[in-house]
């Protein structure tokens, strides 16, 4: 498939260009005599990238172009390998010294000049075979910064129908004022100069309109637009300047995304009479990015007027007919309907007609073949933007029907260089999440588990969709999926860059010298296995052993420092690794390090050299498994001084406060990008506890804080010191506290972004300010977190709480009561192994209650509770 080869080549060249640009800035290249060659490579990659963005796959030259693009792909791989090797060498003092001896300089020069020669040969081929076929449209990679924000269709699925309109002022007023089940959307279509702007302007300024509506906004969109600026302008005009200022303060220290603005507008416009004009809308994409700011169903008099000169923006009268024809062709098959629906979402009416004609006729006959369904999925794949195709094909590295963690997947995309940052102030993770949700909106992957905020935690790939990804990847000949049936000949292919092993040890005989990612899925080992960190994996970027169901050994990590290109390292939980070698400091490009539940107790000082590190997740196995978790040894890791230099770090867990020096603890406050922090302590000194609290208070970007202690209940510790915070953490969304806590710190009640709180072994006498948190969705009180006889949910308490969990209570708690007008959004009550001698009272006061789970323990008045549930309008 030439289209796939084109998108893969474009992505890889873009990644290689980033490395070449960095290499070109290194003055050491002058001393080594390769500066001009690197500059040439950098310039040629820029031109190559532009060529790929504007190349069109024509019928006549598809095969020739595909072969040429595969050569470009291999060149991009080798260029990145070569220049990264150069960059790695100049970062290591010992290697840099070696570079200045005659032999080493000669080897570097030969490799770089060989790359230069290959680029010149490819340029000659392009001219010889006349491969330049430029498109007359803008590349999907260059459509504007609305690609930066998450595709809102993944979050707000309903879509209003735009109705074509060219009528005078009175009739426009009638249309905008007519009642509907939701918002009214009217479009005015025509070429420039026909009064598309004048007519709605007259209506907008009319007295009659201002008598019917309360909130107004006029937004000029034009061809050159910024979705973020439009959304901010909508907030200012519809909700007032103060609303925008409050939103900016709430997200101070983190990137403000379009979703944040959209959520605010939707929430505040519920039930409001608003009138909005979007003047001069040019593209379907622009409308798709803006429309979800307006509630679909709850606003009886909400109205949006769109002016446009593009007929496709205002869907014409053939829309319903074409949709009916497409649905008939899909034959009622869920996979076909969902996949085609995701494809249609961002297309115009003419493209709908084209897609209708391309659908295989077998689908409509009621007993379609699998091949017909594959044609539908392939059609959707062919219409993916070029930046999404490599991300989609990457899914074939996972087994069929495997539940894939979103965070695991996007971190691997980042390590592979698939994620490209635009002009917006967002992190690599934000962009990667945008790619992920766009694949969901196009129905190429399916959400599996969601968190309390509705964010996707895990996903799956439909069997047929997975088959398509495997087929295309095999055609491209750069991915090898190894199982017990894999032929030996396949293991020696030089072009293979990604290897995934399923329940086999056949990697022993493979040529791994050019492999960039190695993924292992296996059952517990029976007998000895080959070492996993092999010297021949010298070009490896990703080593993923998360799903290798055997314990990694110390020997598997001893030579890790030789894998100088490594960016992602993930070991399976409960490994037998007892120390991290100092050679870890050689991995200057490492972004993700995940070795949880190991046997080592501290990080080496060399870890502070890893300036690109973004996620550091290490913990140790508790030493006394036979005892209660409150008395077992700390699962935290001692971190060295110098951690403050890791300015890209976003996730850090678990830090052992007791065994980490006070100076190292203070340095945690310098990690200004940190979003998640997990710490553990046991018998900590007051000075260390105070140092931690002072550091944590500086983490303005922190979204998740998890603090646990192991000291006896009568001793004060780091949790008690949390009350010393002088201001709240502005972005904090999740809070976990474990250990004795005399009271909920006052600042917690001011963390307005909190959505989930877990409290364990805290022995609180009251919940205090938690009851007034405006966005709290889930509250989990575990193992005697609350230590009073009654837990009463008072009037106006917990306005957004949906989920309440009470687990493992053996202390004073006897009764849970819900008063009138409390917790109006409560949906789920989950109680496990609690002794509630006076039962649960007042569930009739929870209008949205859907589920009550009771497991184990003692619960009084169960018959009465069942009767109340039966009388409840939702019958929980």
Can you tag this structure with a few keywords?
NB-ARC domain-containing protein; repeat; 17-stranded parallel β-sheet; 4-stranded parallel β-sheet; single chain; coiled coil; Arc Repressor Mutant, subunit A; Single alpha-helices involved in coiled-coils or other helix-helix interfaces; Rossmann fold; globular; alpha/beta; leucine-rich repeat
Summarize the structure in words.
This protein is α/β, with parallel strands linked by helices and 876 residues long. Among the domains are: 2-137, Single alpha-helices involved in coiled-coils or other helix-helix interfaces (Up-down Bundle); 141-313, P-loop containing nucleotide triphosphate hydrolases (Rossmann fold), CATH 3.40.50.300; 386-466, Arc Repressor Mutant, subunit A (Orthogonal Bundle), CATH 1.10.10; 477-587; 788-876, no CATH class. 34% of the residues lie in helices and 16% in strands. The chain has 25 helices and 27 strands. The protein has a 17-stranded parallel sheet that branches. A 4-stranded parallel sheet has the order 1-4-3-2, with helices on both faces. A 3-stranded antiparallel sheet has the order 5-7-6. Strand 15 (651-656), helix 22 and strand 16 form a beta-alpha-beta unit. Helix 3 (35-53) packs parallel to helix 6 (102-128), helix 7 (169-177) crosses helix 8 and helix 19 packs across helix 20. The longest helix has 30 residues, at 62-91. This is NB-ARC domain-containing protein. Residues 13-94 form the Disease resistance N-terminal domain. InterPro entries: Disease_R_plants, LRR_dom_sf, LRR_R13L4/SHOC2-like, NB-ARC, P-loop_NTPase, RX-like_CC, Rx_N, WH-like_DNA-bd_sf.
């Amino acid at each position: 498939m030439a289209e796939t080869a084109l998108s893969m080549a474009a992505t890889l060249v873009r990644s290689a260009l980033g490395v070449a640009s960095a290499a070109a800035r290194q003055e050491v290249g002058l001393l080594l005599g390769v500066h001009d060659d690197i500059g040439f490579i950098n310039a040629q990659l820029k031109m190559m990238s532009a060529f790929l963005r504007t190349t069109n796959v024509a019928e006549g030259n598809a095969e020739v172009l595909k072969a040429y693009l595969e050569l470009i792909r291999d060149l991009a791989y080798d260029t990145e390998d070569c220049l990264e090797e150069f960059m790695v060498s100049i970062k290591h003092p010992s290697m840099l010294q070696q570079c200045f001896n005659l032999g080493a300089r000669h080897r570097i020069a030969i490799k770089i000049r060989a790359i230069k020669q290959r680029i010149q040969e490819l340029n000659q081929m392009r001219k010889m075979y006349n491969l330049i076929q430029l498109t007359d449209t803008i590349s999907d990679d260059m459509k504007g910064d609305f690609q930066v924000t998450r595709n809102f269709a993944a979050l707000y699925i309903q879509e209003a129908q735009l109705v074509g309109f060219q009528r005078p002022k009175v009739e426009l007023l009638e249309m905008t004022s007519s009642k509907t089940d939701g918002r009214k959307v009217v479009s005015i279509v025509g070429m420039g100069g026909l009064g598309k702007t004048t007519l709605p302007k007259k209506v907008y300024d009319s007295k009659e309109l201002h008598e019917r509506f309360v909130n107004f906004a006029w937004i000029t969109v034009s061809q050159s637009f910024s979705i973020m600026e439009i959304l901010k302008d909508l907030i200012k005009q519809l909700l007032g300047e103060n609303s925008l200022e409050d939103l900016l303060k709430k997200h101070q220290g983190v990137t403000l995304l379009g979703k944040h603005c959209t959520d605010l507008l939707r929430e505040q416009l519920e039930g409001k009479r608003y009138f909005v004009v979007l003047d001069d809308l040019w593209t379907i994409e622009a409308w798709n990015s803006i429309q979800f700011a307006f509630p679909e169903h709850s606003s009886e008099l909400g109205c949006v007027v769109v002016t446009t000169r593009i007929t496709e923006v205002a869907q014409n009268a053939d829309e319903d007919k074409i949709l009916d024809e497409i649905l008939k062709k899909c034959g009622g098959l869920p996979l076909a309907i969902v996949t085609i629906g995701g494809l249609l979402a961002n297309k115009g009416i003419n493209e709908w007609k084209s897609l209708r004609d391309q659908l295989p006729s077998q689908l409509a006959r009621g007993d379609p073949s699998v091949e017909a369904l594959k044609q539908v999925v392939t059609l959707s794949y062919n219409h993916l933007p070029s930046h999404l195709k490599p991300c989609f094909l990457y899914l074939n590295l996972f087994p069929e029907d495997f539940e894939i963690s979103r965070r695991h997947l996007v971190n691997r995309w980042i390590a592979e260089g698939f994620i490209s940052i635009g002009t917006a102030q967002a992190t690599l993770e934000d962009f990667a999440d945008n790619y992920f949700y766009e694949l969901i909106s196009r129905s190429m992957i399916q959400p599996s588990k969601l968190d309390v905020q509705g964010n996707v935690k895990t996903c799956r790939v439909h069997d047929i969709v997975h088959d398509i990804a495997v087929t295309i990847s095999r055609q491209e000949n750069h991915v090898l999926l190894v199982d017990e049936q894999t032929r030996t000949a396949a293991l020696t292919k030089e072009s293979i860059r990604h290897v995934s092993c399923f329940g086999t040890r056949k990697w022993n005989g493979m040529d791994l010298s050019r492999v960039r990612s190695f993924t292992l899925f296996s059952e517990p080992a029976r007998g000895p296995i080959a070492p996993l960190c092999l010297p021949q994996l010298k070009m490896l970027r990703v080593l993923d052993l998360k799903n290798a169901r055997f314990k990694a050994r110390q020997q598997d990590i001893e030579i890790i420092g030789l894998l100088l290109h490594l960016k992602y390292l993930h070991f399976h939980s409960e490994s037998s690794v007892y120390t991290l070698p100092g050679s870890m400091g050689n991995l200057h490009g490492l972004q993700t390090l995940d070795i949880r539940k190991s046997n080592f107790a501290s990080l080496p000082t060399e870890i502070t050299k890893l300036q690109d590190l973004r996620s550091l997740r290490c913990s140790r196995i508790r030493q006394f498994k036979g005892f209660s978790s409150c008395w077992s040894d700390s699962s935290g890791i001692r971190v060295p001084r110098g951690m403050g230099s890791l300015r890209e770090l976003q996730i850090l867990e678990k830090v052992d406060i007791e065994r980490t020096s006070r100076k190292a603890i203070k340095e945690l406050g310098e990690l200004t990008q940190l979003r998640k922090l997990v710490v553990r302590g046991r018998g900590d000194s007051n000075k260390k506890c105070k140092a931690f609290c002072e550091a944590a208070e500086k983490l303005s970007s922190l979204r998740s804080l998890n603090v646990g202690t192991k000291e006896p209940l009568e001793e004060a510790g780091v949790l008690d010191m949390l009350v010393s915070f002088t201001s709240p953490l502005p972005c904090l969304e999740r809070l976990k506290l474990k250990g004795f806590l005399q009271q909920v710190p006052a600042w917690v009640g001011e963390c307005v972004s909190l959505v989930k709180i877990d409290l364990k072994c805290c022995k609180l006498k009251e919940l205090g300010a938690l009851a007034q948190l405006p966005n709290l969705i889930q509250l989990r009180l575990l193992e005697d977190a609350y230590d009073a006889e009654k837990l009463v949910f008072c009037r106006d308490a917990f306005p957004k709480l949906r989920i309440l969990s009470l687990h493992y209570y053996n202390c004073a708690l006897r009764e849970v009561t819900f008063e009138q007008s409390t917790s109006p959004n409560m949906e789920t009550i989950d109680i496990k192994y609690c002794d509630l001698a006076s039962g649960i009272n007042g569930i009739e006061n929870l209008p949205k209650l859907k589920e009550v789970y009771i497991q184990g323990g003692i619960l009084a008045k169960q018959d009465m509770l069942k009767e109340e549930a039966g009388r409840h309008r939702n019958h929980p």
